[in-house]
Amino acid sequence: MNPFQAIVDNAKQVKRTLVFPEVDDHRILPAARRLQSEGIVNPILVGPGDALRAAASRLDVDLDGLRHVDPADETERMTRYLDLLEERFAKKGVDREGLRKLLGQPLYFAAAMVKAGDADGSLAGAAHTTGETLRAALRVIRPASGAKLVSSFFLMALREPLPSKESILAFADCALVPDPGPEELADIAMRTAMGYRNLTGREPRVALLSFSTAGSADHPMVQKVQAARNALEAMQPDFPFDGELQLDAAILPEIGRSKAPDSPVAGRANVLVFPDLNSGNIGYKLVQRLAGAKVVGPILGGLCRPANDLSRGCSVEDVVLTAAATALQVAG
Prior knowledge:
Elements: H1 5-14, E1 17-20, H2 28-37, E2 42-46, H3 49-59, E3 67-69, H4 75-90, H5 96-103, H6 106-115, E4 121-124, H7 130-141, E5 151-157, E6 168-172, H8 182-200, E7 206-209, H9 220-234, E8 241-245, H10 247-251, H11 253-259, E9 271-273, H12 277-289, E10 294-301, E11 307-309, H13 316-331
Parallel strand pairs: 1-2, 1-4, 2-3, 4-11, 6-9, 7-8, 7-9
Antiparallel strand pairs: 5-6, 5-10
Helix pairs in contact: 1-13, 2-13, 4-5, 6-7, 8-9
Protein backbone atom coordinates (compact mmCIF):
# COMPACT_ATOMS: atom_id res chain seq x y z
CA MET A 1 0.00 0.00 0.00
CA ASN A 2 1.16 3.52 -0.78
CA PRO A 3 2.18 5.08 2.58
CA PHE A 4 0.94 8.42 1.27
CA GLN A 5 -2.44 7.11 0.14
CA ALA A 6 -4.22 9.16 2.80
CA ILE A 7 -2.81 12.35 1.24
CA VAL A 8 -4.14 11.33 -2.16
CA ASP A 9 -7.53 10.36 -0.73
CA ASN A 10 -7.85 13.62 1.18
CA ALA A 11 -6.89 15.62 -1.91
CA LYS A 12 -9.76 13.98 -3.80
CA GLN A 13 -12.15 15.34 -1.19
CA VAL A 14 -11.08 18.98 -1.59
CA LYS A 15 -10.58 18.77 -5.39
CA ARG A 16 -8.38 21.84 -5.96
CA THR A 17 -7.25 23.32 -9.27
CA LEU A 18 -3.49 23.35 -9.89
CA VAL A 19 -1.46 24.76 -12.78
CA PHE A 20 1.46 22.94 -14.41
CA PRO A 21 3.69 25.21 -16.55
CA GLU A 22 5.99 22.51 -17.97
CA VAL A 23 3.81 21.02 -20.69
CA ASP A 24 6.56 19.34 -22.68
CA ASP A 25 8.21 17.49 -19.78
CA HIS A 26 7.91 13.73 -20.08
CA ARG A 27 6.62 13.35 -16.49
CA ILE A 28 4.14 16.21 -16.31
CA LEU A 29 1.71 15.07 -19.01
CA PRO A 30 1.30 11.49 -17.71
CA ALA A 31 0.95 12.86 -14.18
CA ALA A 32 -1.68 15.41 -15.26
CA ARG A 33 -3.58 12.66 -17.07
CA ARG A 34 -3.61 10.54 -13.92
CA LEU A 35 -4.51 13.46 -11.64
CA GLN A 36 -7.47 14.28 -13.87
CA SER A 37 -8.67 10.73 -14.51
CA GLU A 38 -8.47 9.72 -10.84
CA GLY A 39 -10.06 12.95 -9.62
CA ILE A 40 -7.14 13.91 -7.37
CA VAL A 41 -6.90 17.54 -8.56
CA ASN A 42 -8.11 19.55 -11.53
CA PRO A 43 -4.92 20.12 -13.56
CA ILE A 44 -4.44 23.02 -15.97
CA LEU A 45 -1.51 22.74 -18.37
CA VAL A 46 0.10 26.11 -19.09
CA GLY A 47 2.31 26.58 -22.13
CA PRO A 48 2.45 26.74 -25.94
CA GLY A 49 -0.17 24.61 -27.66
CA ASP A 50 2.24 23.24 -30.25
CA ALA A 51 4.67 22.10 -27.56
CA LEU A 52 1.84 20.43 -25.67
CA ARG A 53 0.54 18.59 -28.73
CA ALA A 54 4.03 17.47 -29.73
CA ALA A 55 4.69 16.14 -26.23
CA ALA A 56 1.34 14.36 -26.13
CA SER A 57 2.11 12.66 -29.43
CA ARG A 58 5.61 11.71 -28.33
CA LEU A 59 4.41 10.33 -24.99
CA ASP A 60 1.17 8.85 -26.34
CA VAL A 61 -0.92 10.79 -23.82
CA ASP A 62 -4.57 11.51 -24.58
CA LEU A 63 -5.30 15.21 -24.05
CA ASP A 64 -9.08 14.75 -24.05
CA GLY A 65 -10.56 16.42 -20.97
CA LEU A 66 -7.31 18.09 -19.91
CA ARG A 67 -7.56 21.86 -19.60
CA HIS A 68 -4.88 23.91 -21.37
CA VAL A 69 -3.97 27.59 -21.29
CA ASP A 70 -1.55 29.13 -23.80
CA PRO A 71 -0.35 32.55 -22.55
CA ALA A 72 -0.02 33.75 -26.15
CA ASP A 73 -3.78 33.27 -26.68
CA GLU A 74 -4.97 34.72 -23.36
CA THR A 75 -5.56 38.38 -24.20
CA GLU A 76 -8.17 39.01 -21.50
CA ARG A 77 -6.24 37.18 -18.78
CA MET A 78 -3.00 38.88 -19.79
CA THR A 79 -4.57 42.32 -19.45
CA ARG A 80 -6.05 41.41 -16.08
CA TYR A 81 -2.76 40.08 -14.78
CA LEU A 82 -0.88 43.13 -16.05
CA ASP A 83 -3.32 45.37 -14.19
CA LEU A 84 -2.94 43.26 -11.06
CA LEU A 85 0.87 43.22 -11.03
CA GLU A 86 1.94 46.39 -12.86
CA GLU A 87 2.30 48.66 -9.84
CA ARG A 88 4.35 46.18 -7.83
CA PHE A 89 6.72 45.39 -10.70
CA ALA A 90 7.10 49.06 -11.57
CA LYS A 91 8.62 49.56 -8.13
CA LYS A 92 11.24 46.99 -9.13
CA GLY A 93 12.00 48.81 -12.38
CA VAL A 94 9.94 46.58 -14.68
CA ASP A 95 7.56 48.53 -16.95
CA ARG A 96 4.29 47.17 -18.37
CA GLU A 97 5.91 45.92 -21.57
CA GLY A 98 8.65 44.19 -19.60
CA LEU A 99 6.02 42.59 -17.38
CA ARG A 100 4.11 41.45 -20.46
CA LYS A 101 7.22 39.64 -21.71
CA LEU A 102 7.73 38.09 -18.29
CA LEU A 103 4.14 36.84 -18.15
CA GLY A 104 4.62 35.36 -21.60
CA GLN A 105 6.74 32.73 -19.87
CA PRO A 106 4.58 29.80 -18.68
CA LEU A 107 6.24 29.76 -15.25
CA TYR A 108 5.26 33.39 -14.58
CA PHE A 109 1.84 33.13 -16.22
CA ALA A 110 1.02 30.13 -14.02
CA ALA A 111 2.13 32.06 -10.93
CA ALA A 112 -0.13 34.95 -12.01
CA MET A 113 -3.06 32.55 -12.35
CA VAL A 114 -2.51 31.52 -8.74
CA LYS A 115 -2.09 35.10 -7.54
CA ALA A 116 -5.31 36.15 -9.30
CA GLY A 117 -7.28 33.23 -7.85
CA ASP A 118 -7.77 31.52 -11.21
CA ALA A 119 -5.98 28.48 -9.76
CA ASP A 120 -5.43 27.26 -6.21
CA GLY A 121 -1.75 26.44 -6.54
CA SER A 122 1.08 25.67 -8.93
CA LEU A 123 3.65 22.93 -9.37
CA ALA A 124 6.88 23.20 -11.37
CA GLY A 125 10.54 22.26 -11.17
CA ALA A 126 10.68 19.12 -13.32
CA ALA A 127 12.31 21.21 -16.04
CA HIS A 128 13.31 24.32 -14.06
CA THR A 129 15.81 24.86 -11.29
CA THR A 130 14.64 25.55 -7.75
CA GLY A 131 15.92 29.11 -8.17
CA GLU A 132 13.81 29.69 -11.29
CA THR A 133 10.69 28.16 -9.74
CA LEU A 134 11.03 30.01 -6.46
CA ARG A 135 11.89 33.32 -8.15
CA ALA A 136 8.62 33.29 -10.10
CA ALA A 137 6.65 32.45 -6.95
CA LEU A 138 8.34 35.12 -4.85
CA ARG A 139 7.96 37.84 -7.49
CA VAL A 140 4.36 37.11 -8.41
CA ILE A 141 2.60 35.19 -5.62
CA ARG A 142 4.67 36.82 -2.84
CA PRO A 143 5.48 35.67 0.70
CA ALA A 144 2.70 35.46 3.27
CA SER A 145 2.21 38.38 5.61
CA GLY A 146 4.60 38.12 8.55
CA ALA A 147 6.66 35.30 7.03
CA LYS A 148 10.32 35.50 8.03
CA LEU A 149 11.35 33.41 5.04
CA VAL A 150 10.16 30.82 2.56
CA SER A 151 11.40 27.37 3.51
CA SER A 152 10.72 23.77 2.53
CA PHE A 153 10.37 20.26 3.83
CA PHE A 154 10.13 16.72 2.50
CA LEU A 155 7.85 13.97 3.74
CA MET A 156 9.83 10.72 3.92
CA ALA A 157 7.96 7.40 4.11
CA LEU A 158 10.34 4.75 5.42
CA ARG A 159 10.37 1.20 4.07
CA GLU A 160 10.24 -0.12 7.64
CA PRO A 161 8.96 1.73 10.73
CA LEU A 162 11.48 2.95 13.28
CA PRO A 163 11.58 1.30 16.72
CA SER A 164 9.41 4.21 17.86
CA LYS A 165 6.79 2.98 15.32
CA GLU A 166 7.18 6.17 13.28
CA SER A 167 6.99 5.49 9.53
CA ILE A 168 6.59 8.98 8.03
CA LEU A 169 9.09 11.71 8.88
CA ALA A 170 9.49 15.33 7.83
CA PHE A 171 12.97 16.61 6.88
CA ALA A 172 13.66 20.37 6.77
CA ASP A 173 15.07 22.47 5.23
CA CYS A 174 16.56 20.37 2.45
CA ALA A 175 16.01 22.58 -0.60
CA LEU A 176 16.00 26.34 0.00
CA VAL A 177 17.68 28.05 2.96
CA PRO A 178 21.49 27.53 2.88
CA ASP A 179 22.50 28.65 6.37
CA PRO A 180 19.54 29.68 8.54
CA GLY A 181 20.17 31.70 11.68
CA PRO A 182 18.59 30.69 15.01
CA GLU A 183 15.30 32.55 14.47
CA GLU A 184 15.07 31.30 10.89
CA LEU A 185 15.73 27.74 12.09
CA ALA A 186 12.91 28.14 14.63
CA ASP A 187 10.61 29.42 11.88
CA ILE A 188 11.50 26.42 9.71
CA ALA A 189 10.72 24.10 12.63
CA MET A 190 7.34 25.74 13.25
CA ARG A 191 6.27 25.71 9.59
CA THR A 192 7.43 22.15 9.07
CA ALA A 193 5.60 20.90 12.14
CA MET A 194 2.38 22.58 11.02
CA GLY A 195 2.80 21.20 7.50
CA TYR A 196 3.46 17.71 8.85
CA ARG A 197 0.29 17.85 10.95
CA ASN A 198 -1.79 19.19 8.05
CA LEU A 199 -0.62 16.63 5.50
CA THR A 200 -0.36 13.47 7.62
CA GLY A 201 -2.92 14.05 10.37
CA ARG A 202 -0.23 13.03 12.87
CA GLU A 203 1.06 15.07 15.79
CA PRO A 204 4.56 16.49 15.25
CA ARG A 205 7.47 15.88 17.61
CA VAL A 206 10.33 18.13 16.55
CA ALA A 207 14.07 17.50 16.90
CA LEU A 208 16.56 20.26 16.13
CA LEU A 209 19.53 18.24 14.90
CA SER A 210 23.23 18.72 15.55
CA PHE A 211 26.42 16.73 15.98
CA SER A 212 25.92 17.33 19.72
CA THR A 213 23.26 16.16 22.16
CA ALA A 214 22.30 18.20 25.20
CA GLY A 215 25.60 20.08 25.39
CA SER A 216 27.90 17.13 24.70
CA ALA A 217 29.96 19.45 22.47
CA ASP A 218 30.63 23.17 22.48
CA HIS A 219 30.96 24.87 19.11
CA PRO A 220 29.37 27.86 17.33
CA MET A 221 27.38 25.45 15.14
CA VAL A 222 25.99 23.78 18.27
CA GLN A 223 25.27 27.13 19.86
CA LYS A 224 23.21 28.11 16.82
CA VAL A 225 20.94 25.11 17.29
CA GLN A 226 20.64 25.78 21.02
CA ALA A 227 19.65 29.37 20.26
CA ALA A 228 17.10 28.09 17.73
CA ARG A 229 15.56 25.93 20.42
CA ASN A 230 15.18 28.99 22.65
CA ALA A 231 13.65 30.96 19.79
CA LEU A 232 11.17 28.16 19.11
CA GLU A 233 10.26 28.01 22.80
CA ALA A 234 9.47 31.74 22.69
CA MET A 235 6.99 31.04 19.88
CA GLN A 236 5.01 28.82 22.29
CA PRO A 237 4.28 25.97 19.88
CA ASP A 238 1.59 23.42 20.69
CA PHE A 239 3.84 20.43 20.02
CA PRO A 240 6.82 18.90 21.85
CA PHE A 241 10.31 19.78 20.63
CA ASP A 242 13.93 19.65 21.74
CA GLY A 243 17.45 20.42 20.61
CA GLU A 244 20.22 20.06 20.16
CA LEU A 245 19.96 16.33 19.43
CA GLN A 246 22.09 13.97 17.40
CA LEU A 247 20.15 11.98 14.82
CA ASP A 248 20.37 8.66 16.66
CA ALA A 249 19.25 10.28 19.91
CA ALA A 250 16.33 11.86 18.06
CA ILE A 251 14.89 8.72 16.43
CA LEU A 252 16.06 5.66 18.41
CA PRO A 253 14.36 5.20 21.81
CA GLU A 254 17.22 3.33 23.48
CA ILE A 255 19.82 5.93 22.50
CA GLY A 256 17.44 8.77 23.27
CA ARG A 257 16.96 7.46 26.80
CA SER A 258 20.73 7.16 27.22
CA LYS A 259 21.80 10.51 25.78
CA ALA A 260 18.82 12.73 26.64
CA PRO A 261 16.69 11.02 29.30
CA ASP A 262 14.72 14.16 30.13
CA SER A 263 13.92 15.13 26.55
CA PRO A 264 10.24 15.25 25.53
CA VAL A 265 11.04 13.98 22.03
CA ALA A 266 14.32 12.04 22.12
CA GLY A 267 13.94 8.61 20.56
CA ARG A 268 10.57 9.34 18.96
CA ALA A 269 10.95 12.50 16.86
CA ASN A 270 9.10 12.60 13.54
CA VAL A 271 10.06 16.12 12.37
CA LEU A 272 13.80 16.47 11.83
CA VAL A 273 15.15 20.01 11.41
CA PHE A 274 18.67 20.07 9.99
CA PRO A 275 21.05 22.90 10.93
CA ASP A 276 21.85 23.88 7.34
CA LEU A 277 21.15 23.02 3.72
CA ASN A 278 24.30 20.93 3.33
CA SER A 279 23.25 18.43 5.98
CA GLY A 280 19.56 18.53 5.06
CA ASN A 281 19.99 17.96 1.33
CA ILE A 282 22.57 15.21 1.83
CA GLY A 283 20.47 13.60 4.56
CA TYR A 284 17.23 13.33 2.61
CA LYS A 285 18.97 12.01 -0.50
CA LEU A 286 20.79 9.34 1.52
CA VAL A 287 17.50 8.14 3.01
CA GLN A 288 15.77 8.27 -0.38
CA ARG A 289 18.47 6.71 -2.56
CA LEU A 290 20.12 4.23 -0.19
CA ALA A 291 17.28 3.34 2.18
CA GLY A 292 14.55 3.42 -0.46
CA ALA A 293 12.25 5.90 1.28
CA LYS A 294 9.33 7.31 -0.70
CA VAL A 295 9.45 11.09 -0.86
CA VAL A 296 6.93 13.90 -1.26
CA GLY A 297 8.28 17.38 -1.83
CA PRO A 298 9.86 19.73 -1.48
CA ILE A 299 6.79 21.38 0.03
CA LEU A 300 7.22 25.14 0.33
CA GLY A 301 5.97 27.13 3.29
CA GLY A 302 5.72 30.88 3.74
CA LEU A 303 4.00 31.89 0.47
CA CYS A 304 0.59 33.58 0.20
CA ARG A 305 -0.65 30.67 -1.91
CA PRO A 306 0.92 27.27 -2.60
CA ALA A 307 3.57 27.03 -5.30
CA ASN A 308 5.65 23.92 -4.93
CA ASP A 309 8.95 22.87 -6.43
CA LEU A 310 9.60 19.46 -7.95
CA SER A 311 13.00 17.84 -8.05
CA ARG A 312 14.37 17.60 -11.58
CA GLY A 313 14.92 13.92 -10.80
CA CYS A 314 11.24 13.42 -9.99
CA SER A 315 9.10 10.55 -11.25
CA VAL A 316 5.47 10.64 -12.40
CA GLU A 317 4.51 9.27 -8.98
CA ASP A 318 6.43 12.10 -7.31
CA VAL A 319 4.46 14.65 -9.34
CA VAL A 320 1.15 13.05 -8.41
CA LEU A 321 1.97 12.91 -4.71
CA THR A 322 3.32 16.46 -4.56
CA ALA A 323 0.23 17.71 -6.37
CA ALA A 324 -1.98 15.98 -3.80
CA ALA A 325 0.03 17.58 -0.98
CA THR A 326 -0.28 20.98 -2.67
CA ALA A 327 -4.06 20.57 -2.75
CA LEU A 328 -4.07 19.93 0.99
CA GLN A 329 -1.94 23.01 1.61
CA VAL A 330 -4.75 25.03 0.05
CA ALA A 331 -7.32 23.24 2.16
CA GLY A 332 -5.25 23.72 5.32
